[in-house]
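Quarterly update from the structural biology core.
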Amino acid sequence: MAIATQTIVDSDFEIITKHTITGTNGTALKVVDVSEIAGAATDPRVSIVACQWTVSSVTEIEWDATSNVTALTLNGNGTYNGGGQSLPSLPNNAGSGVTGDIYIENDGACTGTIILKMKKVSGFDNIS
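Predicted structure, tokenized:
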């Protein structure tokens, strides 16, 4: 699978990224490296505030850890916390070996776009 990632916003408190997917994957691919986000200091973490997607097959957004933990399972078209929704942010609940990074994985041929809005939670020197 090929994933082209574009950072749309990287401000003091949030980061918004767009991921364009083409192809098949059998393993998770890193799409957000939290150590590369502006202001990243020690052990940075983000939470997922919102997600919008259109994908042609089941695709998972995962928190990186020794065994990755699924944050969202996506299929077809949809949104999490879009429009009038007022749902909580999804915290990183990965266990052993957690890095804070975010991966995308699918097991079949997939094309589509995923937009992630994240909030900087901890480990950044530009938030207090």
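The chain has no helices and seven strands.
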